[in-house]
Amino acid sequence: MVRPASILLLLTLATAGARAADAGLTVSGLGDCEKITKDGAIPPSPHFWDAAAGRLRLHGGRNEMVAAQLMLTATGGDVRRVNVEVGDLAGPGAIPAHPNLELSLELYQFVEHGDYGWGPPSQVLPSKKWYPEVLAPFRDPYSPQPRPVGAPFDIVTEHGRNQGVWIDLYIPKTAAPGRYEAPIRVTVDAQPVFTGTLELTVHGFTLPDETHVDGFGEFYGLAYELHQAAYGNGFDRWWSVARRYHQMAHQHRFVISERAGAGPAIGNLDDWVKAHSGELDGSLFTAAEGYHGPGASTGIAFDKVPFPQAYDGKIPDWTAAQLKFYADNMRRFWDVVVRRGWDRKRWCTYIVDEARQDARGVANFRRLQEALDAGSDGHVALIWTSHTDPAALTADPATDPRGLVRWWAPNGHACDPAFLDPRAALGETTWFYHSGHPAIGVHAVNATGIDLRTWGVICWRYRIGGSFWWAMDLGDRDKPLARPIYKPEDSRWGNGVLFYPGARLADVGLPNIDGPLASLRMKAYRRGLQDYEYAWLLKQNGKEKTADDLVRKVVPSALTDATGTTMGAREGEQSAQGEQRGGAASARRGSSGPAWSRDVADWYAFREAMAAELEH
């Protein structure tokens, strides 16, 4: 027998569906891994969306950021003045929508040329399509008043009928476990056309504030310039904007660092301390500083000494004067670190990129590291980057990097877990940086929503310490929201960009904001870093094997374990040169698709299984 309350619910949903249809749109729910083009078909997403009930389901631990999407699809022509509202969550306690829930309008990019030919041959989604990428918040998070930005909005059907809305929800550490609900309302011209429910299940575990896997990216300063906040024009204006980029990175569980000129360098030590002290002691990540989210009052675990990254593809024969410059400035910096109690953090510096791995290059790397050690009492390590598998260098004592390198960052195709695991056991840091399939997920806009999620999970799978982005703000100066590439011919659409400047929202007809815009790729990267923390919690609960088994189901192999080859010094140099020339050398290497699952349902089930294990 159908109870009256059930009849009322069905009538309400039927009426809401009819109103939405009359208004010329449909409403669907999706998870955080689906990436639907402007003209793409909307798949069912049963782990998140109950279409019959109009119910969008989320789950997570306390101190976790969880996410989903609402997809509004025009059924006829353009639909004007659309808005989405989500109320406070009620359940065993109350989770107010503000400041825990943020809605953002998904802005679409036309991927002109995205075949990924500049990287290893990889399976990317088609070019010449409009992909969701930039996230424009419904309300200005940096304005004293909740000024409208991304909503209300129009669904313009010229390039497709879809319009995505991203939902980010922070689960407070104080939230009581259990099921919560909040109303969802979609309006057109301020008239309700759809009502549904956001359901949140809060688990009984809490994600740590501290991160146990590193995420790191460099800032070139273009974003700051577009905010009229270049460091060269004064510290105060620069830091008023830059601090918001650093806070957004922390909310997503990674660290950013400015290159020399984009922020204070080794010669501007007083400015560097003013900017970075709040990151290191956690005071930048407090409510008093406008921060809300995971990692509150928690300092970053590592940082970069701000020497310029002055050498690309080579390392010079150092003069005594050059080595003295590094040793003396390192000592001056390290004395400040010790006085402030920051010497318990991990410290690196990035001076040389992808240098030749011959005997001469290794000898010069050693001389530079010795100068830094003299100034820091052995506490600061040079980041070592290469397309060469370091294992391939060990046969010759003159090129063997063991005992010299302490901060490893080969690219994904050269990242050899069998070599790096014993280095990590010695306390050395191990990272990888971008390459492509089958080693790691690609970092392009026209990649699946799974690809960047794999980075954090691959780190757990092989006990790699973290991942490194060579640039996070280096896109097209004239069209920064539309062309996230630093060279016009780069076919890795999105290479060099993860943040977008809110100061250029006017380019797409929206009000500017004085801070960063996130991206769908940033959300995918965050999800993988949080997946790592799930596995870490399982290990703390005596379930490390369970975590390993669940991870292996979604990532059977990656890194050199998946490529099946060792990237020698010569091949590594050819790969690096090919990347610089547009893939001429790297494209000669064969490749297959990734071994990990490309079915979003498998990844949703993976996280659900980890959560269930943590509950028992």
Query: What's the assembly state of these chains?
Result: single chain
CATH fold name of the domain at 4-206, please? Answer: Immunoglobulin-like
How are strands sequenced across the largest beta sheet?
15-14-23-22-21-20-18-16
What is the name of the CATH architecture of the domain at 4-206? Sandwich
Overall mean pLDDT: 94
What is the CA–CA distance across the termini?
A: 36 Å
Shape: globular
The number of distinct β-strands equals 25
Number of helical segments with 4 or more residues: 14
Rg for CA atoms: 24 Å
Name the CATH homologous superfamily of the domain at 4-206: Immunoglobulins
Percent of residues in beta strands: 15-25%
Biggest sheet overview = 8 strands, parallel
Low-confidence stretches: 1-14, 583-591
List keywords for this structure.
23% strand, Immunoglobulin-like, alpha/beta, globular, disordered N terminus, 29% helix, 25 strands, 616 residues, eight-stranded parallel sheet, six-stranded mixed sheet
